[in-house]
Design a protein that fits this description.
8 strands, mainly beta, about 120 residues, 5-stranded mixed sheet, 3-stranded antiparallel sheet, Immunoglobulin-like
Amino acid sequence: MELLLLFLLWLAPANTPKPIEVTAAPRIALAPSDVRVRIRVEPHTENRLLVVVLAGDNYYRSSQIPLDGDKEATTHERSYIGVRAPGHYMISAILQRQGEKVLHAETTVCLAGLDVSC
């Protein structure tokens, strides 16, 4: 019985949604390429601001999306058109909640070129 209880407790965190998740497509491509970013934000009354950053060695873009608590959409998308510089890119989504609480999620993208392989 105790073994079953421990197993169920071990599974419980896997079923709880993360407050913020980020995905990007394509994950690997030839430069130049469009990069599409999708951010899923768990609705919460204290959600106030979502910051999305695409950063590489020779490229940086960011955008801010104001959030209206739990009334806001769950999914947000951003597109970065014609990213020309080959390289490895970090995509960060930063969720600011009322009271300066900050949560974040990250993923990576690789754009191959003459001097960059993925």
